[in-house]
């Protein structure tokens, strides 16, 4: 027969309540985007508010791209004919611009609703 002290039972109960009250991880929204001929495809993306976002970026061009967004606080280089993944924290509703820093004319928008 196992014996638990009051502290052990209270600690276990607190862990159980914490696990029920806050799930281990919030659901993520995955968005796929590609770069072809120095253009984002699609150039406008949509994501739900208050949900972490995962960008899966395919660079279909023969030159690297620097996928970047100041408001979303990320910057990453994706080599030619490769894929990259960028994780972004949950955002409030609004419009957030992103761009290719190596090709300044290549811009896009994330619409969070």
TrEMBL record:
Keyword entries, A-Z: Signal
Protein name, entry field: Cupredoxin domain-containing protein
Signal peptide: 1-26
Stretches assigned to the EfeO-type cupredoxin-like domain: 15-112
Source species: Bradyrhizobium denitrificans
Entry annotated with the keyword Signal: yes
Matching InterPro entries: Cupredoxin, EfeO_Cupredoxin
Keyword Glycoprotein: no
């Amino acid at each position: 027969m196992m014996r638990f002290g009051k502290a052990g039972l209270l600690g276990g109960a607190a862990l159980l309540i914490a696990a029920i009250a806050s799930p281990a991880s919030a659901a993520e929204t995955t968005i796929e985007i590609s770069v072809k001929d120095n253009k984002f495809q699609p150039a406008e993306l949509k994501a739900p508010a208050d949900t972490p976002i995962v960008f899966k970026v395919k660079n279909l061009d023969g030159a690297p791209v620097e996928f970047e967004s100041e408001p979303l606080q990320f910057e990453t280089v994706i080599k030619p004919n490769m894929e990259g993944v960028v994780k972004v924290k949950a955002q409030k509703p609004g419009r957030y611009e992103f761009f290719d820093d190596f090709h300044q004319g290549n811009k896009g928008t994330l619409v969070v609703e």
